[in-house]
Amino acid sequence: MAAVVSSDLQKVLKNQKPHSVQVVIQPQAGKAGAVEQELQNRGIQYTKTQAGSLTIFDATLPSDYVGTLSQNSDVQSIDLNQTFSTQAAAGEVIKVEGSPANVNIVTLADTMKEIGIPEAWAATGHKGKGYKIGVIDTPVDESHPMLKDAIKASGGQTQPNDHGTWVAGACAGREVTVKSHNNAKIHGAAPEADLYVYGALEGGHGSVSTIAKGVSFMIQHNVDVVNMSFGGPHNNTMWSLMKELRKNDILPVVAAGNSGPNKDTMKCPGHHEDVLSVAAVGTNKKAAPYSSRGPGWQGLKSSPNVCAPGGDTQIVNGQQKPTEAILGPGKGGGYVKLIGTSMATPHVTGMSAFVR
User: Fold this and answer.
1) What is the tens place of the pLDDT at every residue in 90-113?
2) CATH number of the domain at 94-354, out of 3.90.226.10, 3.40.630.30, 3.40.50.200, 2.40.50.140?
3) How far apart are CA 87 and CA 340, in angstroms?
4) Residue 169: in which H helix or E strand, if any?
5) Strand, helix or coil at 261?
């Protein structure tokens, strides 16, 4: 049986006619060794990632070899090694500087009250203790006061970034007092949970193969849930990675994307049925204009699955203008005000500690 060559890869080969292409290759079950031998025989340099039972090779292939490899019965699929980002193509996470008069600044403590976190603590008698939360994102500031006692293991890239730091803090950040914001006390949804962080998106961007290494890290550490506040074009290998997390009893919680308000604007992997996809609302509980809408992949009507606070905007002359931002931890031990479905997603990830 011929391997599946993704439509995006076919388009690149047909329209751009490149000399070579960067791909990810999935072997048939039990055939990883045969595919590896084939690549070695051809003198092709590759990287191998084992994520649970899923083996992925990433390599740069001569374009004229793709067709030959696709006829190898040991190969299941060949796909582009596409780039995924915290700043998806049609919309990006918004950072609010200073304290503009027309933007309402709320804190993580405020938004946690909005989704009933204090009530969840009271009802369950814990704040996430014993729960293992994974975060695949930009590298996290592991020395941040909210995170230094929460992070139990880390991997991948290490240059701290606001985005990953904020997301990790919203999942399981310990309570701190922010003197620069009227001594506000802020915390994550599950401030007694353990964090496992993997820096896969340095500078906000990462390839499928790099994210696969993050998935492998999470499976190895047997986390309960993994937060993925990033998105990109549909990718079959990314879909396989989400399925592999599920096979290992790990819940993937994924941002819907910031490409709203039109329908059919969700990003991969949030548009898949194997994930819990998260849209954003403001504290007015109305869908934020920037939040991507469904349906999901192949007409999946239930996507996005849930919504949570992510900050808010209004559309002025076709542009998203901030009206509400959420204060959370940033790199260098500081605090930043961000808006996006990336911000909504860790609220749900942390909340999962109380419905297990």
Assistant:
1) 456 888 888 888 999 999 999 999
2) 3.40.50.200
3) 10
4) helix 162-172
5) coil
Q: Residue 199, Cβ neighbours under 10 Å: how many? A: 24
| DSSP single-letter state for residue 173 | P
CA distance 65 to 71: 10
Decide if 304 contacts 278 (C-beta within 8 A).
yes
Per-domain residue ranges of the chain:
4-81, 94-354
How remote is the C-alpha of 308 from its chain's centroid?
15
Q: With helix as H, strand as E and coil as C, how does 117-134 read?
A: HHHHHHHHCCCCCCCEEE
Would you tell me how many other CB atoms lie within 10 Å of the CB of residue 74? 17
Burial level of 205, CB count in 10 A (0-12/13-18/19+)? Answer: middle
Residue reference for tokens 């904020």:
166
Q: Is the peptide bond before 18 cis (omega within 30 degrees of 0)?
A: no
CATH 2.40.110.10 fits 4-81, yes or no: no
Q: What is the pLDDT of residues 102-150, one digit of tens each?
A: 999 999 999 999 999 999 999 999 999 999 999 999 999 999 999 999 9
Closest to 272 (Cα-Cα) out of 250, 307, 299, 293: 299
Could you tell me if 76 and 24 are in contact, meaning their C-beta atoms sit under 8 angstroms apart?
A: no
Catalytic residues: 137, 163, 342
- Tokens at 340, concatenated: 């996006």
Distance CA 287, CA 280 (A): 6
Those residues with Cβ within 8 angstroms of residue 355's Cβ, 6 or more apart along the chain or in another chain: none
Cα(320)–Cα(103) distance, integer angstroms: 13
